[in-house]
Input
Amino acid sequence: MRTRSAWIMYGLVLVTGGLFAVVWLVLTVRDADAVAGRQGGSTALSIALLVGVAVHLTLLALIIFVPPAFPAREVMITTDIPLAVILFALELVIVVIINSRLRSVMTLPPQTANTLLFVFFTLTMFISLMLLQQRLNKLAARNELP
Output
C-alpha cells in the first residue's frame, strides 16, 4: 500500500469535476482491504463501479451527440438516469465499507453517527475520501505496510 497525499488526490477530484473520485475510491478500497488483511475482498464492487461508470459515460456521450428527434435517445436517457443513481449508491456503499474496515483495524467500535457523517461528506463532493485517505496513511505509517 502506498501513502497518497490526500490534498493532491482531492485536487484531482476537483479538477476533473469529480470523475477522479471513482479512481480514488477504487484505490482506497483496495488499500483498505490490504490494511485489513483481506485479499481481493472488494474487487467485484470495484469492477462493477468502473464498468458502470464506463457505461454511464458512453450513454452520456451518445445522448449528447444523437439528434433529439432520434427515438432511441429517450431510451438512452431513461436507462442512464437509474444507472447514475445506482452508481452513486454503489459509491456510498463502498465508502461505508472502507470506513468500517478502517474502524475495525483501528479497533474502534462501529458507530452509526460516524457512518452517517461519512455518507454526508461523500455527498458533499467526496470530502470523505480525503478523511479516509488520511486514516489509511496513518495506519500505513504506524504498521509500516508495503
The chain has a mean pLDDT of 87. The radius of gyration is 17 Å.
